[in-house]
Amino acid sequence: METSTLDLRSVLYVETVNSNLICCICQTPFIEPVVVETCGHTFCRSCISQVLSTKPTCPVDRSVLSDASSELKSASKIISNMVNELLVYCLNKDLGCTYKGQRQLINLHLKEECKFISLKCLNEECTEIVMKKDLMKHMENCKKAICNKVEDDKVEECSYCNKKYSSSLILLHIEECPNKIVTCLYAEFGCSWVGNQHELKNEHINLCSYGSLKNFFGEYKQRMESLEHENQQLKSSVQELQNKVQSLQDQITEISDCVSSSVIPSLSSYYLNYSNHPNLLNPNKDIVVETTSSGDRRVLPLSPPPPPLSSISQPILTTYELLLSDNDHLKNEVETLNVNLADLELRQNVALMTESSRMQEELQSVKNLCHGLRMQMHYLLTERRGGGNEATTATAPVTRTTGLIRSNNNVNVSIKGNNNNNNNTKATNGHFKSLQKLGSMGTDLPRQEKL
Amino acid sequence: MSMALFTKRLAKELSDLKINPPVGIEIEEAETFKSWKLNLDGVDGTLYAGERFALEFRFSPNYPMESPEVVFVGNIPIHPHIYSNGHICLNVLYNQWSPVLSVRSICLSIQSMLSSCTCKEPPPDNSHYIRTARSSPKLTQWSFHDDSV
C-alpha cells in the first residue's frame, strides 16, 4: 500500500498509539503489517524480513520458522486499517505546515497540497531549493529564468495581471496571482463579496462579518452534514423496505395464481358431481336429516349450487364461501348429535331408577325372610338344648346386611346338623335353597329372585 | 533502510528512556548513536545496595538486528557472571539476542541478575579469561549454564 519512497517511520503521530499497534522491532506503529503464521506475532513487513534474513526464528518467542518466506501473511484488514487511519502530522510540521490527517493520506498531502515541501527551482541553471509556497516568488526573481525560458518556451499571458509566464509556470502563477478574481472564503456561509485575491487577503477577510461567525456556521454545517448523511441512510433503508414489500406482493400474487389454477378446478368438479344429486335441488336448506326406521340418522351436507365456471375470476372468495358453508353444515350436525345424546341419557336414567327401586324391594323381602328364619332357628335351638344353655345362644351376633351372608353360613351349618332330627325344618327348606344361592351368586340376587 | 531503522529506533529508545526512565537507571551520556553510557544503581535490599555501576552500550549499524556490545566500565561489580574486565556472561546479549529486546530490557536483565546474586565472588575462571579475552565480549565463545539468573 505504501508504495512511495516516503519513510513512514519518520512521521509524528497526533495521539499516543495503542501499544498493540507498535512493531516491537522498529518500535513504531506497524507499516504494512504482516503476521507470522506459526506463532501469530505481527511485525512490519520490512522489519521481519530483515530479521529473518539473518536468523529464521520469531524475534518475540524464538519459535523456529522453517520456511520463513511462506510464514509471513498480511495481517488482517482491521489491523492495517487501524494503523493506516492513525492521525499524523505533516512531515513539514516544523516548517509551518499545520496539516493533520490519516497516515494513508499523508503521501497525497505531500504530493498535492503541502505548500511547505521543498522543491528545486524549475530553472535548470538555478540550483536553489525553495518551498512550494515560495516557488512563485522565487521564479519571478530568478532572472536567469526569465531571459532563458521566455525564449525557448511558449509564453502565455496571465488573464488577470497581463504578465507573461512560460507555459510551465502559468498554472502555478494563476493560483497565486494577486489580481485573480475570487469570492470570499466565507462565501459558502452567505458572503457575497467578490474581488481580487490581494484585496481579499489584506482587507476584506479582516472586515468580513461572516468571519466572526465562522465557528457558528461551521458547527451548523457539520450538523447539517450529519443530518444529510442520516437522511441518506434512511432513504436507502426505505428503498430496501420498499423492495421487500414489492417482493412479498409478488410472492402473494404468485401463490394466489397457483391456488386458482390447481385448487379451483378440483373444487368445481366436486360441485358438478353434487349438483346432479336429486336431494340437492333445494338450495335454501342446509341440512337434510333422514331418520330411518332403525333409529340411526344420516346427515347429508348440502352446499349452495356450484358457482358457474365463469366466476372463477374470484377464486379465493369462492374458496372462503365453500369453507364457511362446510363449517355451517358441520355445526348443524353436531347440534343434532347433541340432542340425540341428551335423549338417550334421559332414557338411560329412567331405566336405571326403575331397576334400582325393584332391587330395593327385593332386598327388603329377603331381609324379612332372613329374620323369620333366625327366629325359627332360635326357637328350635332353645327348645333342644333346654334351659341351661339358653342365655349364651340367644346372643348370636347376626345383624343387618353385611352380617347376612355370614349368618347364612351359620344357618347352613346348623341346619345341616339339624336336618335329620327335626321335622319342622322342612317348612323352611324352600327359602334355604334360595339363600344358599344368594350366598354364592352375590350381586346377581335380583335376577335369581326373578327366576 | 537499515540505516534509517537503526537511527530511528535508537532515537525512539532514547526519548523513551528520558521521558519514562526505569527505576535505578539513568542516562549518563548519549550524544551519538554509536555508544551510550548508563548508570545502574544497585537495588535496595540486595548485595549491591548503595553501589553505582556504569554500563557502556556500543551499537553497530545493524542494531537492532544485531545485539549491542554491553560491558561494565569503571567500578565493576563482583558477581559470578561478571568478569573483572567488565564482560558480562548473559545469554540475551549474545546468542539469545532478539530484535525485540532494547536498551531498557537489557538494563533490567542485568539489574535482575545483580539482584538475584547470593554471594559476591568473581567467576571461577576470571584470571584466565581476562588474560585471553579480546576487547569485545561478542568475540568470546560463551557457554551458558546457570539458569537461575
Automatic annotation (TrEMBL), chain A:
Gene3D superfamilies noted in UniProt: Zinc/RING finger domain, C3HC4 (zinc finger)
Origin superkingdom: Eukaryota
One Pfam match: zf-RING_2
ZnF (TRAF-type) ranges: 109-191
Residue span, TRAF-type domain: 109-191
Matching InterPro entries: Ubox_domain, Znf_RING, Znf_RING/FYVE/PHD, Znf_RING_CS, Znf_TRAF
Coiled coil residues, start to end: 217-258, 320-347
PROSITE patterns: ZF_RING_1 (PS00518), ZF_RING_2 (PS50089), ZF_TRAF (PS50145)
Keywords in alphabetical order: Coiled coil, Metal-binding, Zinc, Zinc-finger
Keyword Cytoplasm: no
SMART domains tied to this protein: RING, Ubox
GO biological process: protein ubiquitination
All copies of domain RING-type, residue ranges: 23-62
Name assigned to this protein: RING-type domain-containing protein
GO molecular function terms noted in the UniProt entry: ubiquitin-protein transferase activity; zinc ion binding
Automatic annotation (TrEMBL), chain B:
Pfam family, any one: UQ_con
SMART domains: UBCc (SM00212)
Keywords of the record: Ubl conjugation pathway
Gene3D superfamilies: Ubiquitin Conjugating Enzyme
UBC core domain location: 5-149
Record-given protein name: UBC core domain-containing protein
Organism lineage string: Eukaryota, Fungi, Fungi incertae sedis, Mucoromycota, Glomeromycotina
